Structure prediction request, 225 residues.
Amino acid sequence: MQRKGTTPTTLDLFADEAPQPPATDRIGPQSFVFRGLALPLIDRLLPALEAVLTRAPFRNMVTPGGYTMSVALSSCGQFGWTTDRNGYQYSTIDPQTGQAWPEMPQVFMELARSAAEAAGFADFVPDACLINRYVPGAKLALHQDKDERGYQWPVVSVSLGIPAMFLFGGHARSDATQKVPLFHGDVVVWGGEDRLRYHGVMPIRQAEHPQLGEQRINFTFRKAR
Ligand code: SIN
Ligand code: FE2
Prediction:
């Protein structure tokens, strides 16, 4: 944009077009937030998501403690994550439909792979993608992602829709947490020495997203087995 009363310089003229390297926030030694990394893929991600949800609709699961989660869940990929009164587990069958989980769409795989690579984890091939839906007021208590068989691969987490305040803690539940605002298109990766850090999501505030409405959708990609 041209500033009033000044002669435009080359920099001013190209300020709007110059390709900006995507912003990255480092939130741990092996943890990163890649701002807007999913945006170039949005037009492929949303229809792929819709197709997955037709076959494996969102549901509010019950925790082993008997509490119904405010976050609604689905999955795609070889393994889906479920919880019920008996515990948490990965399974190849969606207990709600009795069918295999929908295949992981190619565009999901591409995004997970490129985000992991950007964080230093080349050749990530996730076999599970959990899909979380948060409506305003929904939250996710601090927890570790530890139902996977090994921890050598990172977790790749994609945010879509209305914003969230992500909490990124330490290796003990009582450790201090960083508050990390996440917006449509942001991708968080945590792995290596950070793989088992506690994390959660504060209650989602009322908002509306032009494409997704009053909801936040989150994908987390893992190597479960
Ligand atoms: C999760 O920890 O499973 C989801 C995190 C998020 O929704 O950002
Ligand atoms: Fe998690």
